[in-house]
Amino acid sequence: MSNKDKYPHFRYYIKSKHPVLIIGENSEGEYLFRKVTSSERDGGRPNEKIEPNPDPTRTTPMYIGKRIRHDKKKFFDKRILPWTLPNKYK
User: Fold this and answer.
1) Whole-angstrom Cα distance, residue 54 to residue 70?
2) Averaged pLDDT, 59-75
3) What are phi and psi of 36, to 5 degrees?
4) Rounded CA Rg of the chain
5) pTM to 2 decimal places
6) 43 falls in which pLDDT band (50, 70, 90)?
7) Among 38, 29, 40, 43, which Cα is nearest to 76's?
8) How far apart are CA 21 and CA 13, in angstroms?
9) Under 8 Å CB-to-CB from 15, ≥6 apart: which residues?
């Protein structure tokens, strides 16, 4: 695994045009990911608040959905730098 593919990391999801947290790969070579949002809830489910916000340009809180999703790698753009997930969430 190359340095750029270490997990977790953030990428833009082309289908939604929003960032997601990539947490790994499945046996079919798809990325496993969690949705990134500024909302406290996702369809009635509470999201996990991430502090400090990995996006240094924003002052609003970042939340990550708890549900793990998957999709083909071709639907993800390159890694978002300098976003990093604080160590206490890894």
Assistant:
1) 22
2) 95
3) -105, 135
4) 13
5) 0.89
6) confident
7) 29
8) 9
9) 71, 75
